[in-house]
Specification:
Beta-Lactamase, alpha+beta, 3-stranded antiparallel β-sheet, 2 domains
Length: 147
């Protein structure tokens, strides 16, 4: 029932544990009669007792399929988060900004509109509008924000 891709590794690990007379532990996939692949953990220890000069091993088999599924989901989430973090751009440090027109000076000394500077360094998109204070100041004849 051991999955063909795990069979050789399992044999090597089993042989090494037998030769060393030490605890054996391995995680392998099996394919039971249901056909659904399951993960199991095999653990065994040699005892002091022998039968016909052969060492007696005692062990347990645990179904660890749920744990392995959760680990795979976690690993996939980590990959997705790393990919997302690689795409995130951040702004930090001091930004020299004109106190009148609000342009920002870049590293080369050029003055840029704040929107284009932030877009270039963060990927943020802008949508323009007008706040109530500026509407009253610059368009006093229009009642854009009626009460």
């Amino acid at each position: 029932m051991v999955h063909v891709e795990d069979s050789d590794r399992l044999k090597r690990e089993d042989w090494a544990a037998n030769q060393a007379g030490e605890q054996f532990q391995s995680e392998v996939r099996i394919i039971p009669p249901s056909g659904e692949v399951k993960w199991i953990q095999l653990t065994s220890m040699p005892s002091e007792e022998k039968f016909d000069s052969q060492i007696i091993w005692s062990g347990i088999v645990l179904d660890i399929s749920e744990r392995r599924r959760a680990e795979e989901e976690r690993n996939q989430l980590i990959i997705e988060l790393k990919r997302a973090l690689a795409e995130v751009k951040t702004l930090k440090g001091f930004l020299p900004i004109c106190s009148h027109c609000k342009k920002i000076r870049d590293d080369k000394g050029y003055w840029n509109q704040i929107e284009s500077y932030i877009h270039k360094h963060s990927g943020a998109e802008f949508s323009h509008g007008i706040c109530p204070e500026c509407a009253k100041k610059h368009y006093p004849d229009f009642d854009i924000y009626e009460d």
